[in-house]
Amino acid sequence: MRLLKTCFVTLALLLAALGSPVYGQTTSPADGGAKPATTPASEEEVQQLRREVAELKAQIQRLVQASAKQAPRDARLVQASDVLASSVEPDDASAPAAVTPADIDSLQKEIEVLQKKASDTPPATSGWTGEHFFLKSPDGQFTIMPVGYLNAQYTFYKGDGAPSDTFAIRRARFGVQGSYGKQLDYAFLFDTAATNGISVRDAYADFKPWSSFQIQAGQFKVPFSQEVGTGDTNVEFIERSNITSLYPDAAGTFRAPGFTVHGSLNEGVVQYWGGIFNGKGIITNNTTNEPEFVTRVRIFPFKKNKDSLFKNFAIGGSYEHSRSRGLSNELSFSGVMNDSAYTFFPQFRINGGIDRYNAHFQWLHKQWGLRGEYTQILEKRTGIGSEQLGGIGFQTLPGITGKGAYFQVGYLLTGEDEPENAIPRVKHPLIGPPSPGESGGPGWGAFQVRFRYSWIEGRAPEFICPATTCPITPVIFPLQSDHTDQFSTGLNWYLNYWVLLKFDFNLDRLVNPSVQGIARQNYFVALQGVQFRF
Fold this sequence. Notes:
By secondary structure, this protein is mostly beta strands. The protein has two domains: 2-126, no CATH class; 141-533, Porin. The protein is built from five helices and 20 strands. The protein has helices at residues 2-18, 43-70, 80-85, 101-120, 226-229; strands spanning 126-128, 133-136, 142-158, 166-180, 184-191, 199-210, 213-221, 255-265, 270-277, 292-299, 312-324, 352-365, 368-381, 397-412, 446-460, 463-465, 475-477, 480-494, 499-511, 522-533. 31% of the residues are buried.
């Protein structure tokens, strides 16, 4: 009996030793992206430690088996101190010798050596987070991860005056992101498929002393709309909605140099952004002495109710003010459709203040995702100057207005949850490794069906310059009021967490066309795209 209980004491010591930090690489996603976790032991070291611990387990197993042969049938529990104080006399000379306190001390010393060996092992400086590769400094403070993605598509058009069918590389972006310490994130992203050659898309640092107060500075997306806030690789349709032409810095992929103060309050119930930017696009200086000002608020009213059907329901709004400069030949918002089928509204020279208003919502529940947004813009034409030689001179014309909205719904047929600003965690990938956090076996990937309706309109009011004001050349500007809408449907096939195939079909309805030679009609556009990211 003494021998058996002595083995129990030894086994307890071993289990305590196994609770020490001897483990391999793990992942700890944060802020929407995976980041490397501390790895006290390398894989080779872990395997060696496992072999040595296995040998100790084998020794204890042999002792337990030997003790079982000696244990009396009326075995009963006693205090641990009695184990070392008592003695056991074997029934015959062939029985193994009893385990002494010295044997236990020897095993404990071996375990302590293993513990010290594990603690002395330097942390891993490279590896895989489950989503990205990473490099890390030996002290674990500086982390860098290479990231990138490719979007390619082929587009078919049907309609009089529509563009030719074409293949295009929409995005081919590569860069790095990471952190320095726990309070500073950074990112640098370059686009190698830009029409003007390689250009900087994102270059910023995000200082995060508290979740309620963070500062981001550099060049990045202007935080005006919910749709633009969605990452380029997480947009469910091949193209964003038509109303993106009303967003700030639309010609610069919605990015501009500047800085914001942002954060979340009350455990994420309230999110806010407020910042100033140049407001002229990518790596472009401002043309006026008034910066672009943007503010946005989003609220999750039922976020703390974990059982609520509307836990992931959010509403929000935003406001933007900036200024245009006519002498810099700045124009009103673009009237080109998002699929480039046609131009529904012409551009005009503008000069003066620009004001934008936005309201948006989202509701996510299991496989369902519903989103919607409304935007309105007013672009002033103060002292705009003549639209033609010998025209009206420097007159103030009525401003250009635009407004539009979209509503979209998506449903994952294969049971994955609809994420917010992320790729669904594919449960059964067709190719490649499983999604981070998923352990399902191979399958056909994930399938998602989706539908969207969007509309947009532009208006340039009529203006008449009488002979008393325009003595040389009286001018009449007729009313320009055009609108269009679009029905979009499609299927997403997620081969795995990193590879996605998209199939979209758009029905564009053109009303009051502004492009000469194009009649009022419907256009049919089919788009196929492939996305790869790492």
